[in-house]
Every structure is written in C-alpha cells, then in structure tokens.
Design a protein that fits this description.
Layout lengths: L2 H19 L8 E5 L5 H9 L4 E4 L2 H10 L6 E4 L8 H7 L2 E5 L2 H10 L7 E7 L12 H13 L3 E8 L7 H21 L5 E3 L6 H6 L4 E4 L1 H4 L4
Parallel strand pairs: 1-2, 1-8, 2-3, 3-4, 4-5, 5-6, 6-7
Helix pairs in contact: 4-5, 6-7
Length: 227
C-alpha cells in the first residue's frame, strides 16, 4: 500500500468516527482531496483507492493535471483566489468553484460556462476573520452574493466555503466556524438546493465536522507536505 492509500483509509475512518461522535448523519461529510503541488502519481493512487473529488488552487497547474488525468473519473474543485482573466479556463474545465467572492467573477463564470456542460457548482467564499489580505466576501454580504449566484443560468449555487485563520484549540476552532454554520442554515431557509458547507482543513477538520461541515478539504493530511 502507498502512503496515500493508507492515509486515505485512516482519514475515512476518522471522518466516520467524527460523524458518530458529533451526531452527524452517516456519510454527511465528504472528503475533498486537495492536490495542489502534489504529484500525478499521488493523485492516481488516491483515485485507485476510490477518491473522486480533488481541489486545486492554481489554474495553470490544475489544467495540466486535468488534461493528464482525463482518463480518470475525477471531479475537480477550484478552491483558490480567482483573477478575472482566469474565469474562462475555470468555467470550461472545473466541476465546482468554491471560491467565488464577488459578483463580477460570478457573472463571468456563468457567461463562460459552456452550454454543453451542466451548470458549474458554486460555493460563495466567506472571509471569517475579516482580514483585508484574505479573499472572501463578508458574512454580511454573503447572502446577497448567494442570491446573485442562484439567479445566474450557468451556475448552480450549492453553499458556502471559508478558510478561518489557523487556531490550535478545538473550542477556539469550533467558535471560529460557528458563524459560517449559522449563515449556512440561514441560507438554507431562504434558497432551495443549498447542501454544501465547505469548511475544515488538515489542522481543524474535527472542529469543522462538529460544527456541521459537509466537505472537509484535506491536503497535507492525505498527501504529505507540499513541494
Ligand atoms: C491548501 C488548501 C487546503 C488544504 O490545506 P491542508 O492544510 O494541506 O489540508 C484546503 N483549502 C484551501 C482553500 C486550500 O488552499
């Protein structure tokens, strides 16, 4: 067994155990394998072990991987900051975009989504720590942006994503995720089809699952450290 195969098995067990521990429905938490700066061999090993969803942050790197691995049945999620000149490539080659944080980007992705493909699945990225340097809309503005995304024909709004500032204690981590979970429930009460709360990375996915995450995005825990 490769390290990736072993790690994947371990992570799946951890996720199932956390679902039980926090009274979450069985299989309500999905694993997104964050493969940025990881080799094709490791991605192939993960696919061979049954992993289907992969997350990438850099468009050029991702396009090379998507082309090289086109023989496999993968779902590709774009999770990095989005520049306007990259929306066309993203709209044409990805299944999901989890990092939509402004209306202009949402409109371009919708216009550039090829009619031959199903609508692009979208999560609106929220900046929980309100740091100017990080991407993401404010919690306050997130509902309006979600409404805009929901009305665009090339997009299918699925929910919210966030990357909180790294914290070490479980309680601190849970507190940082809670406002996003509340916004998610509010969104579910207002719009149909909202089923995705993407939060939790290698260092904080237990807290994220405790707070209701439906996608955890794991890179280093699965693939090891990045180049
Ligand atoms: C890199 C990245 C991850 C994975 O981080 P790890 O700490 O390696 O698990 C998750 N989400 C986003 C948006 C990332 O950029």
């Amino acid at each position: 067994m490769t390290d990736v195969t072993k790690n994947l098995e371990l992570i799946r067990h951890q996720i199932r155990a956390l679902e039980r521990q926090y009274s979450r429905a069985e299989r309500s938490v999905q694993l997104l394998a964050v493969s940025k700066k990881q080799s094709m061999e490791k991605i192939r090993a993960a696919v061979a072990a049954g992993q289907r969803d992969f997350g990438e942050n850099y468009v050029q790197e991702a396009l090379e991987k998507i082309a090289a691995l086109s023989d496999l049945e993968c779902q590709w999620h774009f999770i990095g900051p989005i520049q306007s000149n990259k929306t066309k490539a993203i709209a044409e080659h990805f299944d999901w975009v989890e990092s939509v944080d402004r209306e202009k980007i949402a409109r371009r992705l919708s216009e550039q989504r090829p009619a031959s493909l199903p609508p692009l699945n979208v999560c609106v990225q929220v900046n929980l720590s309100a740091e100017a340097s990080k991407s993401g809309t404010t919690l306050k503005d997130s509902i309006a942006l979600c409404q805009t995304v929901a009305d665009l024909p090339g997009l299918r709004l699925r929910g919210l994503m966030a990357i909180p500032a790294p914290l070490s204690g479980l309680e601190e981590q849970r507190n940082s995720f809670r406002p996003l979970a509340e916004a998610y429930r509010e969104l579910q009460s207002r719009l149909p089809g909202i089923d995705t709360l993407s939060m939790g990375m290698s260092g904080d996915f237990a807290a994220a699952i405790a707070e209701g995450s439906t996608i955890v995005r794991l890179g280093t825990a699965l693939f090891g450290s990045r180049d």
